[in-house]
Design goal:
alpha/beta; Leucine-rich repeat, LRR (right-handed beta-alpha superhelix); Phosphorylase Kinase, domain 1; 8-stranded mixed β-sheet; 7-stranded mixed β-sheet; flat; ATP binding; transmembrane
């Protein structure tokens, strides 16, 4: 009888362990896998151990688990040259205490879901290429002690919700494109102490509600107005390179802060370290191959055709399914797919409707080039130029949110190019029902499809590494 009871107890223990491991695998490991999917280039292979098939996530590089090995408490993948996006699923890592991705090449926006990490103490995303505003949800990080967002391309105003962070000791926002005022307080109820000043009243707002900063840096942005009194104890160098009403030197002119200029190089690079043209070209070559060609398209549209074909080929490596022509596809079942983008990204790029392109290209019958994964049409706009339309043939369910973000970013960059050897982008087409992604170029008649398609094959042979993102 006693032996039977012991056996039952043993099964209960094993059952509890199984449930714990299963819960860990279904939630946090899934979030880690999604983070890996958002990385399109891993030159140092730091994520090569991230394999859920035959390994324990607690043994993955850059991952630290709790003592019970049932939760992820730290991610530290700094200085690894990762190129990719922050995925919103990071918000599922409820026990995470430190997220350190400093010194990579991450692009896109900071997902608002990061605000769900109530146990997070360190958020270090400095020295990347993140854009867009700082999400106000960051004010929900009630345990946060350190935030480092330096040297990115962040824009917009500082959310006053930063003042909710009562334990915040270090805030680094220098070398971004932030604007507006530093959210402090108009209250004069501040009491001096040995370290600086602290608020003596609850009727304060913004950063004055935060704890005493040990380190704070707002330099080299586009802030205007005055320095809040509650932050007057900080060194003047913490505010230089702005348009603040301050007698300290090295402030920008007021005109410079009226309209912050667009980032033309690696975000966060100071004026003394602007890259040369050669440096920019070198930087471009590190981008994913399927988008690199959007930036180096030849005099014909076929360079872009090859690259779009590569994109869809990569997608097909994951899905192993047939390709569907976008305008023949019914509305997607993924009606609520969330895509995190900068709403201002394509504001200056003309957007065509699928209907007008269908008319211009004679009901999409005038095909001048094709590959297994994309089609090129020739058309004539009413009263306008001849055009070449590159259409992606891909299922919407395989069009991930981070691909949408990067697609839009590169369309915006391509629209700014103006070179004699570069096909001029006239606009794009982006519709959800039916799912459509098209690029519209000015038609160039020099060269044949066959010649340009085949002369570039050797270039694409070096891009096989990109396939890893879909494995």
């Amino acid at each position: 009888m006693r032996s039977s009871s012991s056996l039952q107890l043993l099964w209960v223990v094993f059952g509890v362990l199984f449930v714990s491991c299963d819960a860990f695998a279904s939630n946090e490991v899934s979030a880690l896998n999604t983070l890996k999917e958002g990385i399109y280039e891993d030159p140092l292979a730091v994520l090569s151990t991230w394999n859920t098939v035959d390994s324990d996530p607690c043994d993955w590089s850059g991952i630290t688990c709790s003592e019970a090995r049932d939760h992820v408490i730290k991610i530290n993948i700094s200085g690894s040259s990762l190129k990719g996006f922050l995925t919103p699923e990071l918000g599922q890592l409820s026990s995470l205490q430190e997220l350190i991705l400093h010194g990579n090449n991450l692009i896109g926006v900071i997902p608002k879901e990061i605000g769900s990490l109530k146990n997070l103490k360190v958020l270090d995303l400095g020295m990347n290429r993140l854009t867009g505003p700082i999400p106000p949800e960051i004010g929900d990080l009630t345990s946060i002690v350190k935030i480092n967002l330096e040297s990115n391309g962040l824009s917009g105003r500082l959310p006053p919700e930063l003042g909710n962070l009562r334990h915040l000791e270090e805030l680094r926002l220098d070398r971004n494109r932030l604007e507006g005022t530093v959210p402090g307080s108009n209250s004069s109820n501040f009491v001096s102490n040995i370290n600086g000043m602290y608020a003596s009243s609850r009727n304060v707002t913004g950063l004055c509600r935060s704890s005493q900063f040990k380190v704070a840096d707002f330099s080299y942005n586009f802030f205007v107005g005055s320095i809040p009194k509650c932050l007057a104890y900080l060194p003047r160098t913490s505010f230089q390179g702005n348009c603040l009403q301050d007698t300290a030197p090295r402030q920008r002119s007021t005109a410079q802060c009226a309209v912050p200029p667009p980032a033309k190089s690696h975000p966060g690079v100071g004026p003394k370290h602007q890259p040369t043209l050669d440096g920019l070209k070198h930087q471009d070559t590190s981008k994913p191959a399927w988008l690199l060609a959007l930036e180096i398209v030849t005099g014909t549209m076929v360079g872009s055709l090859c690259i779009i074909a590569l994109l869809t080929a990569l997608q097909r490596c994951k899905s192993k399914s047939s390709i569907i022509i976008p305008w023949k596809k019914s509305a997607s079942e993924k009606e609520h797919m969330q895509v995190y983008i900068d709403s201002e990204m394509l504001k200056d790029v003309f957007r065509f409707s699928r209907q007008e392109l269908e008319v211009a290209c004679e009901d999409f019958s005038n095909i001048i080039g094709s590959s297994p994964d994309s089609l090129v049409y020739k058309g004539t706009m009413k009263g306008g130029p001849e055009i070449a339309v590159i259409s992606l043939c891909i299922k919407e369910e395989h069009w991930m949110g981070f691909l949408e973000l990067y697609f839009q970013k590169e369309v915006a960059d391509l629209a700014r190019l103006n070179h004699e050897n570069t096909g001029k982008l006239l606009g794009y087409c982006q519709e959800s029902s039916p799912f459509t992604r098209m690029l519209v170029f000015e038609y160039a008649s020099n060269g044949t499809l066959y010649e340009h398609l085949h002369c570039k094959l050797s270039f694409f042979s070096v891009t096989v590494v990109c396939i890893n993102v879909f494995q």
